[in-house]
Amino acid sequence: MAAPMEVEGALEAQRKAHPALANKLDAISENASKKLYHQLTQALLDYLSDPCFLKKDAAAELLAFWNGYIRSFEGKFNKTHSLRILTIVCKQQDAEVALELLAPFEEAVKGDRDATFYWQILKAEKLVAAGKFDAAKDDLENLDKAIKDAYEVDALIQSQFHKTYAGLWKKLERHQEFFKSSILYLAFTKLSDIPEEERPALAFEIGLAALIAEEEFIFGELLQQELLASLDGSPYAWIKDFLVAFGEGKFDLYDEALAKHKTQLEATPALAGKESTVLRPKMAALALMELAFRKPKKQRRLTFEELSVHCRVEPKKVEQLVMKAMCAQLIKGKIDEVASLVIVTWVKPRILDNPRIDLMRDRMDTWAQQTGYLVEHLEEMTPELLVS
């Protein structure tokens, strides 16, 4: 532990380096002198969240402040709060340096469930950064089971866990898993907790994964995320048109997006050359789902000709499209090859937007009306039934 003079010296060094943050440093000093350790952790987190500490060249300064000042209060802080502060310090460090900083906490967090979870998440994050993917995957798989078996795990821990898991899947280029982990991360994370400058790129990465993950067909939850608004006015805004087209399952919207943004599409390495092999087949499946959904249940008898036109596939490939949709559990039903007909009995549930809710309401109104007619008919027949 640093001596009192060294501690004061570390704080004074911060004052000289950041005179514009004098008020925040005064709050740190005051809370430390009054031994208000909870308030001190909040003051430190507030101070370290300043943009000047988000740059890579802040690594040495952060490390010096951690060793010279913050660690002197280590035994006084809530363990999870200490790890939150250490997270900021580690963010700018090389992965191996960060792992060395984290190592002593393994023993310190024992007996504190949430702090243990948080430490394991931070360790896994740095293992990913160090390229030790197998070790990170093993740790995260074990942690996933522990968190699921636990009771009332803090949202902050859930958020960091899914963010770290998403980071691993991104490195491994497993788009489906990255998308699912990212959606869970957003579910446990306030938009205000994501740095504003990071939001457009994050929204783009998640949207991109949704487009190229061959087994992902549900876009409604993504389209409802507040994060997507950050795409507007950014260099990544073009992807939103594709996401809306896929979410609606409408080829007209897809064609418009393709006509407007083909240059950006081909300039994106993950999408280059995949319009005909990945995007269009997925769009055809989504168009099939949307067509089946909009048909009344008793009228879900789709001809091969209708499917060919609506889903933009050659007549001879309609059966292949339907079989793939069935294998992916997008629809259920049967194919009548003789009559060139597809009878759909079930469509995979999706997030309902306002137009689809209106459609469902109209169906309910029709059902209620038909039920009323049936009741009236039975009431009229009742006397005759009783007599007979």
**Range of strand content:** under 5%
Major sheet description:
3 strands, antiparallel
Radius of gyration over alpha carbons? 28 Å
Total number of beta strands: 3
The DSSP helix count reads: 19
Whole-number count of domains: 4
Helix content: 55-70%
Which strand order spans the largest sheet, edge to edge or round the barrel? 1-3-2
Distance between the termini: 99 Å
Look at the helices and sheets and give the structural class.
mainly alpha
> What do the pLDDT scores average to?
90
Shape: elongated
Q: Write down the secondary-structure element order.
A: HHHHHHHHHHHHHHHHEHHEEH
Low-confidence parts: none
How do you describe this structure in short?
65% of the residues lie in helices and 4% in strands. With 388 residues, the protein is mainly alpha-helical. It folds into 4 domains: 1-141; 159-187 and 196-273, no CATH class; 276-351, Orthogonal Bundle (Arc Repressor Mutant, subunit A); 356-388.
What does this protein structure show overall?
This protein is mainly alpha-helical. It folds into four domains: 1-141; 159-187 and 196-273, no CATH class; 276-351, Winged helix-like DNA-binding domain superfamily/Winged helix DNA-binding domain (Arc Repressor Mutant, subunit A, Orthogonal Bundle), CATH 1.10.10.10; 356-388. It is built from 19 helices and three strands. A three-stranded antiparallel beta sheet has the order 1-3-2. α16 (275-294) packs across α18. The longest helix is centred in the C-terminal third of the chain and has 34 residues, at 354-387.
